[in-house]
Design goal:
Layout (H helix, E strand, L loop, with lengths): L2 H31 L5 H4 L8 H12 L3 H15 L4 H22 L4 H27 L4
Helix pairs in contact: 1-3, 1-4, 1-5, 3-5, 4-5, 4-6, 5-6
Amino acid sequence: MPIQYVLLPLFVQVLLTFGLGVLMFFARAGALRSRTVQWQSIALGEPGWPVEATKRANAFRNQFEIPVLFYVLIILLIITRHADVLMVALAWIFVLTRIAHAWIFVSNNYVPRRGIIFGVGVLVLLVMWIIFMVRILLNLP
């Protein structure tokens, strides 16, 4: 399988992370420019930011939690040559859940729906890891 097929979902995940970072930047810059928030109220943490800036910051920060295991797995799949159609399909499903999760986070932030999408993504990633571990430990293709 061409390496581009394996890397494409990873690239989309990276772009999602940077996109959320840009959204966060503009929300925070707008809050500072409009004086909705003062420098001293945000100097030591998040509580001083307006709701929209906080939602975007939380969505951005969330991209450095579970997706880290995705990045590691993709790298291992490439190194061990275990990236196949199944793993690429599961990678796309995981990334699509991350996009949906981020969209819900920065839009209506409906927690029950966000939680379900998050759970599906984690489950898909867990399945990917289990398949990978079994293949490696049992020396399967």
